[in-house]
Amino acid sequence: MTESAPRLALLTPHGVGAGDLDSLIPALATACAAGDVAAVILRLAPADERALTALVKRVAPVVQEREAALVVAARDFVGDLVSVAMRGGADGVHVDRPGDLADLRGRLRDGRILGTGGFETRHAAMDAGEGGADYLMFGGLYPDGEAPDPESVRARAAWWAEIFETPCIAVACTFDEVAGHAATGAEFVGLESALWLADPAGVARAQEALGGAA
């Protein structure tokens, strides 16, 4: 279990495309400056690699200038997400229900991040930890907008943080979940987009729930 307060990770909505950037980029800039934000997980809409690379190139500087890492995810994307991340200047990739993590780990060099989530069992989580993931994520909205049971998220994050050294993110879908998720010992508390994208004060509010200003 960690003794210090967890840092924040911001999750974008599922399916971000180029048409979303005019509103997303300024919101990210505001949010990353408002608290101790360690990372942003950018959930991309499926598109061709060139289009996704161009999109990542626009977002990465906004996040990185505020000393946060940009991690890209793309559900149902059949291309090479590692190539998109590297060519776009992102800091890493996030995959749900991972297949061959060893292959991804081998390709993500120079300190780039490999994150994973979407676990249905504890065994699957342990396999991911042994496969070289830099962090595991518990919780987060499903693509259909449904939220997982927060008690289940807390239980899995507490179990992981108590036993394993690999950091984890416990994702909050409401502000009421932030303090409880932090109490699990997770190194990071994730904020779904409803908590920061439309609310300029959302990150500061979450930061306060974690124990004070950044």
CATH topology, by name, is TIM Barrel
The total strand number stands at: 8
Q: How much helix is in the residues?
A: 25-40%
For the termini, the CA-CA separation is: 21 Å
How many domains make up the coordinates? 1
Please outline the major beta sheet.
Answer: 8 strands, parallel, barrel
**Strand order of the biggest β-sheet:** 1-2-3-4-5-6-7-8
Given helix and strand content, the structural type is alpha/beta
CATH superfamily: Aldolase class I
Q: Looking at the structure, what is the overall shape?
A: globular
Which CATH architecture is right? Alpha-Beta Barrel
For the residues shown, what is the average pLDDT? 93
* CATH uppermost class: Alpha Beta
Order of SSEs, N→C? EHEHEHEHEHEHEHEH
The percent range for strand residues is 15-25%
Count of runs of 4 or more consecutive helical residues: 8
Q: What are the segments in which pLDDT stays under 50 over at least 5 consecutive residues? A: none
Rg over CA atoms, rounded to whole Å, is 16 Å
Characterize the structure shown.
It holds the Pfam family TMP-TENI. Keywords: Transferase. Its EC number is 2.5.1.3. The chain has a single domain, classed as TIM Barrel (Alpha-Beta Barrel). It has 8 helices and 8 strands, in the order βαβαβαβαβαβαβαβα. It has helices spanning 21-32, 49-64, 81-88, 101-107, 122-130, 150-163, 178-182, 202-210; strands at 7-11, 37-43, 69-73, 92-96, 113-117, 135-138, 168-172, 188-191. The protein has an 8-stranded parallel barrel, surrounded by 5 helices. Helix 1 packs parallel to helix 2 (49-64) and helix 2 (49-64) packs across helix 3 (81-88). The protein starts with 6 loop residues before the first strand and ends with a helix. The mean pLDDT is 93.
